[in-house]
Specification:
The chain has 143 residues and is of the alpha/beta class. It contains seven helices and six strands, in the order E-H-E-H-H-H-E-H-E-H-H-E-E. Helix 1 packs parallel to helix 6. The relative contact order is 0.20. The N terminus is likely disordered.
Amino acid sequence: MTSQPDVPADPPRFLTDRGMGAKVVPAALQEAGFEIVTMQDYYGPAKAERLADEDWIPDVTLAGMAVLTKDSKMRFNRLVVKAIHHSGARCFALARQDLTGRQMAQRLIDNKNEILRVARTRHGPYFFHVHQDRVGEMPLVSR
């Protein structure tokens, strides 16, 4: 089991995964006051593209970051669920995958207070869906 940071960072840092892109969404979130690290900046573009979710999730969790992802289905992948549980990852996923970059950013910005509250006060593992008007915890289900 990977060790967890003692206390979530305040303000929390978030890693945006490759599904969030490297420009539009991260820039909008930073402008709105989120502390963002993109997967491409953290690993470099080539490595970011080939890393499996079950490999980078524990790594960024150990570095104290929470995860912002577009991939709400990752909570059904057995290897990813195991990685989230073992690392104590704190994950926030968009509940819809058909949004533009601007819409993705706006959905996260509209729910910023709740995302920050959860990330500041709760240790992982957890997986939240970010909806248009709410943030809801989802069970991690491995098939």
